[in-house]
Amino acid sequence: MIIDSHAHFEPRMLGEANLIQKLDAAGVDKVALIPAMNDPLPHVPEFVLAASRALMQSGLTRPLAEAAHRFTLTSEGNLRLGGTIYNIYPQPDNEPAFALVKKYPGRFLAWAFLNPRHNPGVLDDLEKWRHEKGMIGVKLHPHWHDYTTDLLYPLFERMQELNLPALIHLGFGKRGDFRAIAEKFPRLKIISAHAGFPFYQDMWNFAKHHNIYVDLSSPYIDENLARAAVKVMGADRCLYGTDAPYGFSDQHKGYDYSEIRGWVERLPVSSTDKEKIFAGNFRELVKI
Ligand SMILES: [Zn+2]
After folding, report:
1. For residue 23, what pLDDT is reported?
2. pTM, whole model, 2 decimals?
């Protein structure tokens, strides 16, 4: 069984019919959807991604990657890329993703996207969405929503109580204080998106002794980083994910499911471990 633990519902790039067809063709059994948080972005060339991955792999050069990131954020909290502004939605609309889950309950599950910044009602939002069919946890993005992770504590307290996992795209510095989070909420299940972006190996050693998992999604990482994450953290802590439809697109302007799947298939681990990464760990985490 293959479960994609990290994909976005972005019908402006990959519509419902096309998505189902692609999943069938790629043999992806289930997908945990994340509501769209931004306007569709232009394709980022691989050399830019590779340079940014390289900078983030050491605490010495990571501040350069952070400076580059801050340069792309406008004062209104949107992204400026190549002179064009792309909106980041302060409160992503969860409705379309959950509507798709309702339509295809065997195929899709969904993360509710929440943002605590400028949102005194975030705990009420959690109560609202957690009762939706197929809701498996909460997606958080302190990197693009640009807040320090201490803002998440009231939410984390409730999520820990409810045993609801958090899928979090960590930001730099205090916008990704995974040590403080894990120590304050030892029972909270944390999935750090993109193999611990932007800390990578600086997080893995800490993470394996805490309740932190990683997904192996997106060109924010590459095959070497995925391999290194599995080696340090162990197969039990790693989840298959894609970040579709962003990242690896195929020549038909859809999404290329073969890339990250290949990373997992080529891992030097047992087939039992690969099954855990493809589905078992996720099923255990979200209790399905
Ligand atoms: Zn994503």
Report:
1. 95
2. 0.96
Gap from CA of 7 to ligand 1 centroid (Å): 6
Number of domains in the chain: 1
For residue 251, tell me if it sits in a domain: yes
- ω before 198 within 30° of 0 (cis)? yes
Full domain range(s) for residue 221: 3-44+92-286
pLDDT digits (tens, 9 = 90+) for 84-103: 999 999 999 999 999 999 99
| Exposed / middle / buried, residue 76 (Cβ in 10 Å: 0-12, 13-18, 19+) | exposed
Give how far the C-alpha of residue 108 lies from the chain's centroid of Cα atoms, to the nearest Å: 16
Cα of 5 from ligand 1 centre, angstroms: 10
CA–centroid distance, 266 to ligand 1, in Å, is 23
User: Residue 276: inside a domain, yes or no?
Assistant: yes
- Residue 159, burial from CB neighbour count under 10 angstroms (0-12, 13-18, 19+): buried
Tell me, yes or no, whether 122 lies in a domain. yes
How much distance in Å is there from the Cα of 183 to the middle of ligand 1? 25
